[in-house]
């Protein structure tokens, strides 16, 4: 349910307009990983700058060595806190394209959901804050000072954002940083997220012979890099589902009994969770519940693998090379750079004879844990309660927002993670979507949150 | 060195013409695995038919449910043996195209070698027999009755050739069957091959969740089909390099002490063999020499693998599916259909929880062992000695010619395997090639062989 009583200005017309503006943004194929989409990246940035300028923000598009950053500010609330709203306008690659029911960059509404790449991650959630500010402006001046920082490289590890923040520390200074770039716990469960996992992402290349070989003439004597890669990957976890890289678990923060109890009380059951992804089992580290494994335990997954003949029919070849993309989700107590060094050092030591292994660092991100007692997190709780008519739950997220750690380190401000999306939105998958009701609730939550923050500290 | 004394008609002009005719055939991209190349397949078949007809053969192109068969015969040698020459005009896919120094279907001569897909496998070796017959015809009538059977589906497992042979048994009847579709032992070592490995080739599909998932939101609980596939593959061999599929080695013919001794005497050393393929090791089944592992021991290789994100940069996804092509080389005593059933039954039993496994049979071929004492194998030995000025060695081949078993079974005639190529020709690889000298020696060997067979039994 949606409490619009405080914001009668959010009319059906306003909602329709908010939807059309988001659709326009979703039609721009701003895939940061794809060098061919550079111009689209800039178009998306300029679209956001133009919109924010129209709301009376001082807005600009700043170049970086990669994709541009959109920065905007409206600082008219004398003596009130300053809120920095972070989001990203880049999206994941659309592959595999053939699995999309409607084109990824042609937003389509079905059963009350917007289907498009970036609908929930993060264009829809970020734009909800833009419309939230717009909604407040219909009632007069903003109750707090607001800064928007919208980047274009979140899906490739934000390589240029930290330098950008360093170069603009004074300008970006804020009392709190608000981010909506994840999923709340469940459809009817408003959620404040107080932890995120970190990430170490590498690419592995294995080489055998110096050329592809006939598997008949050489099978039985030639090194096979695909078999070798499979052996390496399979040896990275033991039978308990624990990662075998020496030192991997050193320093991992253990869950507190209070957290385990709080999460055990959440409305979750493995059967329906498994059913929601069409899985017949939920394999993982022994000794931890599913939520504990998702939110507070590190893990390792192969995100992609390739080698040899992938075409039609059968080719009797022993490939010269094979490769894989491997990522590890990290938890508080683990340092991404250290973990990346560990796997880079370890893989060559377990390579079968005849296999040459190179491990390339693609990117990493720090895990995050947020103090539940800070006033801004409390304000988020009240904002969600006002919109949903019930108190939110406090959970962690399994994903990573690497830049959150940089915000904390460089801006020394508490981060508030209030997510409008759902896992069922299928971010990063074909047919990514975002419920229209979640989008509009996001707009209202954003408006309530800024108002609550204003009151919280006045 | 090449003994042309018996065939002064094989002049420089004749050689140049023999090369140009082969180049024309090599320019036709007759990739049997590629549905888009159907018309090219027919063009290649018609080119061979036209050539053989011009030599006075009764030649035709016979349709099959797949690609056509070229059949030609010249039966003017009253009371003389009939020789059936088998070859194939289809070639392996050219992928990976970017690794070719010159276009795969634009034959280019460098350092005395013809570079093109199919140069050695099998257009070059098959066409050497066509020119061998032509060479004999310059001296008068052929000394034996000659039949050519040139198929277009060898590289996809000859699915339609056995039915074709059954339908034409009387027409194809012969005293011996000559095949040149492999590699001799070494550049200066004329070789008669008396054994071939069989093949079982399957495609494995592993499914986890019903859609791609965000590795942050689901990593630690969702089944990962790539990790599962790696685990399945790595468990298919033990630390001794032995295949672990239950029953895999049942009935395998052990090597005789005489064979082990004969092969131990061949000019081979592991170091230079490894160097020839740029490998740092020659991993394989413990307890057997490299040649024994290549010729007389079964093995298993992954020929291709795929799953998840293979593009630029990093995508944090847990794929819904992954797949691999797996082939097993078989030896006398192993039945391909039985081995395929074994792996189809075994893989699902070793799948990690949450992984659904389907194993698809792509194709298979029977292993072959030939009696060294039959007069046609002896004739091949004399023909090679005449051309190379030295006695040949007797080896087995690691590859498979599935149809050889069918010939033996349906035509009840001994098969003679006399190979003109070399492993260094890189069949199935980018930059496949065939030495011009090997091509011309092949033409002369073919002519000598037909003459020797005529004498051998007159």
From TrEMBL, chains A, B:
Q: Which residues form the Peptidase M20 dimerisation domain?
A: 202-354
Which UniProt key words apply to this protein? Hydrolase, Metal-binding, Protease
Q: Which Pfam families match?
A: M20_dimer, Peptidase_M20
Residue ranges crossing the lipid bilayer per the database entry? none
Q: Which GO terms describe its molecular function?
A: metal ion binding; peptidase activity
Domain of life from the UniProt record:
Bacteria
**GO process terms (BP):** proteolysis
Q: What is this protein called?
A: Peptidase M20 dimerisation domain-containing protein
Q: Which organism is it from?
A: Deinococcus aquiradiocola
